[in-house]
# Entry
Amino acid sequence: MALLSLIEKDQATGRVGEIYESMINAMGFIPNAFKVFSPSAHVLDVQFSNLGYFMRHKTLGGKLLAFIRLLVSEQEQCLYCVGMNSGILLQYGVLPEMIAEIKADPSKAPLDGKELAMLLFVLKVVKNSNSIEPADVDNLKTLGWNDTEILEATYHGTTQVGVDKIFNAFKITPDM
# Structure
């Protein structure tokens, strides 16, 4: 049970109601991952906007982004996000035994070399942002990533840390 009073669909008004309607139209339900932000229409709007942006990203693929969220959430011990992103990766053909192996060794993620380098870079930032050297960024650029993509992938991973902490703190339960 969440520690905050979450707004349910039948209680939602204004911007919260609009976002909920959009989610129902797109997904068929409102995930607890979004209900947790419902006490603040502003925070919910930011999260909803981020979801839309990254779902339609031209170069950061859904599989890469799901691995970023999964592995950051594994580090942060956010069971909700580990479960959700494991489910998303199943849709990409990543089997449960593969997910367990990748959690132990992220370099085994089934991504091409360019995406794998980005994943490992973001995980390095999340683990110890002070450990990043110019060569780390130069390596990504050599592989064809640009500054925007590097920043946005890093933003996605570091934002996940904050989301995981919110979900853990307020005891968000898995969607049924």
